[in-house]
Specification:
With about 260 residues, the protein is of the alpha/beta class. The chain has eight helices and 15 strands. Keywords: Phosphoprotein.
């Protein structure tokens, strides 16, 4: 069987090195090479590769952000490419993910290829997908809190970015978070409770189990008889504040 492969790295020399090392393995056909996450998502959608070589450290959208834009059943097998990053290497080892440390060692390359080929040959085996999902969940949970400055939004084969400053409010929609920006809604493949940990707590605040709002977008707050509140945003949007969040909201607003 022939396996389709895509090489994703922002350094052309690094891509050529991977492609050159794959030549002794005719069972792997390189169907594309990409220099950034946006092009990679388009190539994956077009070619449906069995395997990708993925650089972790890329500008604009890093390797993990790119993978998170793919649904679990869209993700191919991955061999990560990385410069020395002690935390990332520990995470890869814990979740039995294949990775190649730059500069790439030929022996290690052969080991990674042999290993991923054995897994690909196992019919009905979902080990690769389970390991990758577990790795991404772990990395998500351990990302530094309060530093989210932008969001990568996937729309078909296109990826665009929204800055945190543009977001007016956020609501939960199942396993997604809906970002409301200038009257438009953009879906982010991330549960609200995970996203909340990465938002700046001095800028965004939770007002309901399914709603987060940007403090400087609030224009009015009205108390209700049941101790809930109604918020009116500057664009006229009305949101309900549940009583369990109202005290913290009032305290936050007093400091705005």
């Amino acid at each position: 069987m022939t396996y389709r492969a895509i090489v994703i790295d922002d350094e052309p020399l690094a891509r050529r090195g991977i492609i050159s090392r794959l030549r002794p393995y005719p069972q792997f056909e390189v169907v594309g090479e990409c220099g950034n996450g946006e092009d990679a998502l388009a190539a994956i959608s077009e070619h449906h590769p069995h395997l990708i070589f993925l650089d972790v450290q890329m500008p604009e959208m890093d390797g993990f952000e790119m993978l998170e834009q793919l649904a679990p059943d869209e993700r191919p097998a991955v061999i990560f490419l990385t410069a020395f990053d002690q935390y990332a290497l520990r995470a890869f080892d814990v979740h039995a993910a294949d990775y190649l440390l730059k500069p790439i060692d030929d022996v290690r390359f052969t080991e990674a290829i042999d290993r991923v080929q054995r897994l690909l040959q196992m019919e009905k085996d979902n080990t690769l997908g389970e390991r990758l999902e577990s790795l991404l969940s772990d990395l998500h949970a351990k990302r530094p809190s309060g530093n989210q400055q932008r969001f990568a939004i996937r729309n078909g084969r296109r990826v665009f970015f929204i800055t945190a400053n543009e977001v007016e409010w956020i609501e939960a929609q199942g396993d997604y978070a809906a970002l409301h920006v200038n009257g438009k809604t953009h879906l982010l493949r991330e549960p609200l409770h995970i996203l909340e940990r990465r938002l700046d707590a001095s800028t965004f605040i939770r007002i309901h189990r399914s709603t987060i709002v940007r403090l400087d977008r609030i224009s009015e707050m009205q108390a209700l008889a049941n101790r809930d509140c109604l918020l009116r945003l500057k664009d006229g949007t009305t949101l309900r504040v549940s009583r369990s969040y109202s005290d913290r909201l009032q305290e936050a607003l007093s400091g705005v």
